[in-house]
Amino acid sequence: MNIAVLGGRFDPPHIWHFWTAQQILENVKDIDQVWYMPDFQNAFMPIVAAPYQRVEMLHYLETGRIKLSSIALAKETVTYTVSVVSDLIKDISNRYFWIVGSDITYEFTRWRDFHKLSRMITFLVMPRKDYPIKNLPQGFQRVEGNLMLSNVSSTIIRSRINKGLTVSGLVFPEVENYIRKHNLYR
């Protein structure tokens, strides 16, 4: 099976996480599934919601071919992509790809063992609004097709919630209800 992994903080998961996964399935040949893989802790930015809360919210974004993986969470330490990929590629029954937004191509050299990582797995680069794709590093492949682009981010959503502004349409209604019920991001 060919599995594309979308890793990250998912703090909170939002509509664009869903549409990124959906567009990968629609536009990248032979991808069977997309897995959301939330970090336990992120190497660059703090995470606000607890791991179990982000998992509960991510379940609302799952479909038959879009699934949740807790591989990175199980490590209970800072999530380094190179470590996760090392574990994934031990499973030779599947072929894995790593999904990133075009904004990541500008900072990829900050990632732990980035040279090694780009030889271990193919990166699928999803264009993001305001982050044009120029020169891609070795091992990176641009996602092509009639794609919808966005600049929706968890940072924007957390900021809007903190200011008391609506996030309707930016997150699934179930995620919005969960955030409100658990008083997250205030």
From TrEMBL:
Keyword presence, Transferase: yes
One GO biological process term: NAD+ biosynthetic process
GO molecular function: ATP binding; nicotinate-nucleotide adenylyltransferase activity
Pfam families: CTP_transf_like (PF01467)
EC top class, as a word: transferase
Family annotation (InterPro entries): Cyt_trans-like, NadD/NMNAT, Rossmann-like_a/b/a_fold
EC number: 2.7.7.18
Domain Cytidyltransferase-like: 5-160
Pathway linked to the protein: Cofactor biosynthesis; NAD(+) biosynthesis; deamido-NAD(+) from nicotinate D-ribonucleotide: step 1/1
Residues passing through the membrane, by range: none
Alphabetical UniProt keywords: ATP-binding, NAD, Nucleotide-binding, Nucleotidyltransferase, Pyridine nucleotide biosynthesis, Transferase
Function of the protein: Catalyzes the reversible adenylation of nicotinate mononucleotide (NaMN) to nicotinic acid adenine dinucleotide (NaAD).
Family to which this protein belongs: Belongs to the NadD family.
Name assigned to this protein: Probable nicotinate-nucleotide adenylyltransferase
Organism: Candidatus Gottesmanbacteria bacterium GW2011_GWA2_42_18
